[in-house]
Amino acid sequence: MYVAVKGGERAINNAHRLLAEQRRGNKDIAEIETDQIEQQLSLSVTRVMAEGSLYDRDLAALAIKQARGDLIEAIFLMRAYRTTLPRFAFSKPIKTAEMDVSRRISATFKDLPGGQILGPTFDYTHRLLDFTLMANDEDPAEAPSGENPVDEHMPRVLDDILNYEGLIQDEPTPVDENAPVADLTREPIKFPAGRDLRLQNLSRGDEGFVLALGYSTQRGYANSHAFVGEIRYGTVSVEIEPEELGFAIDIGDIELTECETVNKFKGSKTKLPQFTRGYGLVFGQNERKSISMALVDRAMRANEMGEQIMGPAQDSEFVMEHSDNVQSTGFVEHIKLPHYVDFQGELELVRRMRAEVEARLSKRDADEAKSQSKAAE
Amino acid sequence: MTAHTANATATDQSQNTEEAIQARQRWMAVLARTERSVLETEWSNKYGDIIWNNLREPQIGMVMVRGRAGGAGQRFNLGEMTVTRCAVTLSDGTVGHSYIKGRDRVQAQYAALFDAVMLRDGAASDFIDTLAQQQAAAKRAHAHKVAATKVDFFTLVRGEDE
């Protein structure tokens, strides 16, 4: 039986009006401007760009305001917006070796060329609440300048230092630079997935999910003990080669965080042991995500390295099918939407089954009573 | 002799072309990093009389940014960025192009106009040089600030060895 259900329209409209009112909050308090979000909540902006998979600081700030600070909702808004835009081009691969670094550290080499550059970091803060911020009394003095600027081209720990002795695996470079690059925004994910597809999936994957999986590899659900070879955060320029020009042009800078891990070595009786690699690259300043990504990238290379699959982080299908928070939210939250007809069906089924069992039970009771009375006679 | 001359000319031309492309790449990169208001002011002060048409209206779209595994290996699609492009024609037929990060149609429009002016006679060379210097100075100032966060390791002598 079909029952057409109507009548929610007024309630929905009013719910959205209530939402708008609550988003604005107390009108005695100044309305937050998207510029303020962009500048002062910049790490939220970063996360929304990375997982929304669209680099645009202003749009991310707007999405955060509209979503009342719910970052997954904001990411959803970014994803929806990006479907409205045409794609002009693919960039040339960005050169992280030429990054203008704001931070660059290595946990494996203390005295590395270029130095340990801390940059703007929460590391080594005491994690005590700073009540001057609550009093809106923050007016920081300008940060001091060093005598010499940081090096323009920071050597890379894995390629320029470790690989000098052949101690780490070369990054396998495909012979054919014109080979197609997988793109999960255009084609559904297929398994087994290549590393290109896995990296794209991880870079836009949910930070919490990728973090938890990265953590699981450290706790023993994968066998790939990792060191952070290098983390660098800063800006790189993006180049495209428009057809109408026929040469590459630089269209501006984006912020990225890159992490390279040095992992458990691999070797055999005949092959020299070598360290292996994990790679993380994320829009904006996001160290937690880039380290986690590198851990999971390495774990997902289990097949390639001939390792036994012993944890979820090594299972590409498990990781990639559950990493997207828009997809996950869609399926998890859709069960709150009206399922009246589905449920009606279940309800009738359960009632019928109960009736059948009840009928059987009462027949049995009746039979028992009958046989007892016969026995008594 | 004739052949020799022809060869020399061809070489000169290819050098010129290469140089011309490099020069153009430089100013396009500078314009892509210049705020709309700066471009707008300069244009209305100096080039307001120039007659031009849109060859392609400013249009917002995206570029898929690519990275490489391990920074040097297999290519992969990292994520998209918003980009605005525009093309203009001056009355003498010179065509200027722009592709800039973000969604500022007006900035893209002026970037294409300055590209055209630079292609026509390099009239905005001084303006571009000034902008380039400002951008380099800002980058340098940042690099100095970042450098102040560099760790200076020192070793304590514990004196156990006498």
UniProtKB/TrEMBL annotation, chain A:
Pfam families: PhnI
GO MF terms held by the record: lyase activity
Single Gene Ontology BP annotation: organic phosphonate metabolic process
Keyword annotations from UniProtKB, A to Z: Lyase
Record-given protein name: Carbon-phosphorus lyase complex subunit PhnI
Organism: Thalassospira lohafexi
Automatic annotation (TrEMBL), chain B:
Keyword flag Lyase: yes
GO biological process, one term: organic phosphonate metabolic process
GO molecular function (one): lyase activity
Any Pfam family the entry gives: PhnG
Xref: InterPro entries: Phosphonate_metab_PhnG
Keyword vocabulary terms for this entry: Lyase
Entry-linked NCBIfam families: PhnG_redo
Protein name, entry field: Phosphonate C-P lyase system protein PhnG
Species annotation: Thalassospira lohafexi
